[in-house]
Write a structure and sequence with these properties.
mainly alpha, single chain, two-stranded antiparallel sheet, 12 helices, about 350 residues
């Protein structure tokens, strides 16, 4: 590799370390601007053909990538540092909207099905529960992101982020980066938050709604008392699922290390979910009876769905989805590793 190629590679690694710390919408524009700036500055300061040592001296003056990335940001934020502020706001918006809309709809449905004796007191209790859940979520997300940022700052102290850093220690820049889809993570987080709220507050809401002489009633899919016994385990499992997606969201891009961690969490969650839903006591037998009747009326034939069949289908789907997701995550991690080595 001649001097020109060495300088080009050094600049590319530096630009990558700066741009990867910026919001996705600013990365490409900032990378182009920084490339032009570095080329112009190197040309102005060197008479003749520049060397790799000249390029390293220029990067030393520019400062560590993390510090330069902070200067490229639009404004300072102080509740959560700039590294994770956008992800923090995204998580807060998802939780607050899910908690408010989800619990409001559930309390409204509950009031419709089981008319409360004192409607004013019922509204007050519902409002208090919704508000306290939103505040609890705000506090939990804030504490979690604060811890992640503090830990990340200490962990990421490296040669190129100290006062005396060496541009030669910059890691290779991949030829292509596989970014995490924020839209998909946002959708999955919304679903997980909604499931968490339902299991903790309204497990009976998932079921078949039928009309009898007394009006509209619900035949729940799960036995509420059995779900309550597994609630701590279910919350822990959903918590691992949420942490997995937060990890992907904060990393912003796939890597083999992130993929392996996600697959390990997938394995833990799959085992825990299967352990819970393999228990017959969790399921409501009446649900399957009414569901068989519904299918029979819809298809104009007789249906009989047994618990064993339903359980086998549910567990099979669960294992298939976790296996499929783990395979996709591993594929992206291996591709990212290939791009990193090719860089």
């Amino acid at each position: 590799m001649d001097e020109k190629e060495k300088i080009k590679d050094l600049f590319r690694r530096y630009i990558y370390e700066v741009s990867r710390r910026l919001p996705p919408r600013k990365r490409e524009e900032t990378a182009r601007e920084l490339q032009i700036l570095l080329d112009d500055m190197l040309e102005d300061r060197v008479q003749g053909t520049p060397s790799e040592a000249d390029a390293q001296a220029l990067l030393l003056e520019m400062g560590p990538p993390k510090q330069l990335a902070e200067r490229y940001r639009e404004k300072k934020r102080y509740l959560i540092g700039p590294n994770y502020y956008e992800q923090y706001v995204m998580l807060l918006v998802i939780w607050e909207l899910t908690a408010f809309l989800g619990l409001s709809a559930a309390y409204t449905l509950q009031a419709f099905l089981y008319i409360p004796e004192n409607i004013t007191r019922y509204i007050q209790q519902a409002a208090w529960m919704i508000l306290s859940t939103m505040v609890w979520g705000f506090a939990a997300i804030t504490l979690l992101l604060s811890f992640v940022e503090r830990y990340s700052d200490r962990r990421n102290i490296s040669m190129w982020e100290k006062d005396f850093w060496n541009p030669g220690d910059l890691p290779p820049a991949p030829k292509e980066t596989i970014y995490v889809s924020r839209a998909m993570i946002g959708f999955e987080m919304t679903c997980l938050f909604l499931i968490l709220l339902i299991l903790n507050f309204f497990p009976w809401i998932v079921g078949i709604y039928i009309r009898d002489n007394t009006g509209l009633v619900v035949v729940p899919l799960f036995r509420e008392e059995a779900i309550s016994g597994y609630l701590l385990l279910l919350d822990a499992t959903l918590g691992i699922e949420i942490i997995k997606r937060i990890t992907l969201l904060l990393s912003g891009r796939y890597s083999l290390k992130v993929s392996i961690a996600s697959i390990c969490m997938n394995l833990i969650c799959m085992v825990l979910f299967v352990a819970v839903f393999a228990d017959r006591a969790v399921w409501n037998d009446a649900f399957f009876e009414y569901f068989s009747q519904f299918l029979g009326q819809f298809f104009h034939t007789e249906f009989s769905i047994s618990f064993d069949l339903a359980q086998m289908i549910f567990v099979g789907i669960l294992i298939f989805l976790y296996t499929l997701e783990s395979g996709m995550i591993l594929y992206r991690g291996l591709r990212a590793k290939t791009y990193q080595e090719a860089g």
